[in-house]
Amino acid sequence: MKKGYRRFGVVWITVFFLICISGCGQKTAAAGNLGNGAGMDSGAASAGESAAGSDRMGGGDGISAGPDRMGSGDGTSAEDDSDGLKPGQAPADTEGLSGDTRTERFEILDVDDKSMLVCGAGANDMSGLFRVGHGPVLENADGKPALISELKSGMIVELSWEGYVLESYPGQFGYQKLRITEDMGSRELEFYKQLIKNLAEVDPGLNDGITQSYFDLTMVGSLSDAEKEGLAYMGGTSFGAWGELATEKDLVESGALDPQKGLEHGILVTIEETSNSGSQLTCSARKYRSGTGAYYFSDVTATYKDGAWTYKIGAEMIS
Questions:
Q1: Within a 10 A sphere around the Cβ of 53, how many other Cβ atoms?
Q2: Residue 147: which of 157, 155, 139, 156 has the closest Cα?
Q3: pTM for this structure?
Q4: Alpha carbon separation from 143 to 179, 239, 253, 265, 313 (Å, rounded)
Q5: DSSP structural state of residue 35
Q6: Phi, psi at residue 246, to the nearest 5°?
Q7: Is 237 in contact with 226 (CB distance < 8 Å)?
Q8: In the 3-class helix/strand/coil scheme, how is 224-252 assigned residue by residue?
C-alpha cells in the first residue's frame, strides 16, 4: 500500500508539474501576444500623437500652421486656394478699377513725362491744386489709347483713382485711368505763364534774396479762381521762390510789406487785364520790391492764332 501510494503520488505530482509548466507557457505566449499588440497600438498612438501635435501647431483642425499663415487666415491653406493666388494677390476681376474708384474732372495746368499739375474743374469738391502721377491707362475722347505726349495745358480730363490724396500742397495722387474730354479751360493761362516768366527774367537784381513771390491777379478776368491759384504757384517757380496769391493790401496787413521800405524778402507781381476779345487781349504787368525797385510792362498786346500766343510789349519801365 505504501509503495503504491508513493507511485500514485509521484505520478500526480508529475502530472501537476506538467500542467503548471504548460500553463506558464500559455501565459508567456499570451504575454508575448499582448506585447506585440501593445506594440501595434503604441505605433498607432504615436501616429495619433503626431497628428495631434500637428493639430496643436495648427488651429486644432488638423491643418498645419505653416500653410495657414500663408493662406487667408480662415483655416484653409494656400495650397487649397482654388484660384492659385499668391499671398496678398488680388483676384484678377478686382484688380485695376474697383467699385470704390473715384472719378473727377480736372484741368491740366502743366504737364511733363512723370506728372502733371492740375486743378479741379466742373461741379466737384476737388478744389485746390494737385500734383498727379501718370497711370497705366490713357484714353482720348473716343475711348482710344492716348499718349502722355498728347496731354496739353488747358485740357479738361477725367481722372479715375482710388480716392486717396496725400495731404500736402499741392495734394498728390496717381491716377489709374485718364480720359481726355473735348472741353478746354482758359487758353489765356498759357499766355500769362509766358508773361510772368519774361517778367522774372528782366532786371534779375530785383529778385535777389527773395523767399516769397506774391501774385495779385484780381484784375485778370479771363481766368478762374483755380487757374489763378495755379498760375501763382507756377509763377513762383519762375522766380525761384514760393508763389501764392496776395494783394498789396493783404501784404501790408500781414506785415510782409512795409509801405515805406517795401518787401524785404519777397516780390509782388501785379497783372491788370484791360481788354479781351477772345483772340486778342491787352494788359499791363509789374513786379515790385519797393518804391525804388520795380519793373513795368505796359500796353502789352497778345494775339492767339493757330493754337499759340504771341505778344508785344508797348513799353518797359524801371524805377
A1: 10
A2: 139
A3: 0.69
A4: 7, 40, 51, 49, 43
A5: H
A6: -170, 150
A7: no
A8: CHHHHHHHHHHHHHHHCCEEEECCHHHHH
> Which residue is listed with cell 493754337?
307
* Cell, residue 302: 497778345
In tens, the pLDDT along 176-235 reads 999 999 999 999 999 999 999 999 999 999 999 999 999 999 999 999 999 999 999 999
Beta bridge partners of 103: 160
Instruction: Catalogue the E-assigned strands of the chain.
Output: 102-111, 115-120, 129-133, 137-139, 155-161, 171-174, 177-184, 212-219, 242-245, 257-258, 262-263, 266-276, 280-290, 293-305, 308-318
State the cell numbers at 180: 481726355
Residue 10 burial (CB count, 10 A): 10
How far, in Å, CA of 175 to CA of 147, rounded? 14
User: For helices 188-201 and 225-239, what crossing angle results, to 10°?
Assistant: 30
* Residue 87: all three cell numbers together: 499671398
Cell output for 68: 495657414
AA letter at 244: E
The owner of cell 486644432 is 60
For 262: left if phi > 0, alpha if psi spans -120 to 50, otherwise beta; the answer is left
CA pair distance 203, 294, nearest whole angstrom: 9
